[in-house]
Amino acid sequence: MIDGPFSALGKYRHLTLEVTKREVLGRYRGASFGLLWSLINPFLMLIVYTLAFGYILKSRWPGYTGGTTEFALILYMGLIVHGMLAECMIRAPSLIPANANLVTRVVFPLHVLPWTVVLSALFHMLANALIFLLLSLLVRGHVPWTAIMLPLTWLPLVVLSVAISLFLAALGAYLRDIGQVMAALVTAMLFLSSAIVPVTALPERYRIVFELNPLTFIIDQSREVSFFGHMPDWKGLLIYMTVALVAVYAAHAVFQKARRGFADVL
Questions:
Q1: Is residue 9 part of a domain?
Q2: pLDDT given for residue 44 in this prediction
Q3: Which pLDDT band holds residue 29 (cuts at 50, 70, 90)?
Q4: Quick check: is 266 in a domain?
Q5: CA 117 to chain centre
Q6: pLDDT category, 114, cuts 50, 70, 90?
Q7: Domain range holding 227?
Q8: How far, in Å, CA of 48 to CA of 42, rounded?
Q9: How far is CA 128 from CA 43, 204, 240, in A?
Q10: Domain-located, residue 95
Q11: How many domains in the chain?
Q12: What angle do helix axes 214-223 and 68-91 make, rounded to 10 degrees?
């Protein structure tokens, strides 16, 4: 019987968590600041974007009267969400070549590997969310109670990230150049999402490009619950989750079919 895409969290959960732990710790092994780099990197990006958009270009979030610090927090949430998917897309294509020793092991469930990438990215996402909430408390003096809904808001994106990681891992085993494309693609996805500017501030003819970006809806909903104190769009999240579930099962089927040829191309 073929394992389903969620067996990584069921039947193989101990293996998945152990490999994820190794991924997180191994990534910063030897670095002076260790795990702190998972917080430092987004902060560096935040500083750059705040200086560029907040101080040099004097940008403000349309429809919100807050100052530069509040604008920085709004940007930060967009960077947190983008960073999660970006990490998955950049790392997934090299998963199979980087773990060639596991491909020859018939008993090893290779579909666990994309899950470890997603869970590692999720760890960094949650760590940065905690920093966001602490900064919000420091800058604004409060955190809206709706912030407790952030995990529910992110759940559809996590499932979609698994689907994308499964597909890219399978594709990357055969097309090694796909990894080079991802760096440019994730940058484009950042600037063609609502991470930097709300869709409502764009000309009508350009909005469709931003709305089709899978990041835009999640970024918007994340800001609604964590910054503006509004309830999320439950209907929109349900539709997103449905699409994500279809995508993850389809990607898992592609991965399992492509797996048969992994040993031949490595």
A1: yes
A2: 77
A3: low
A4: no
A5: 10
A6: very high
A7: 5-260
A8: 10
A9: 9, 33, 23
A10: yes
A11: 1
A12: 140
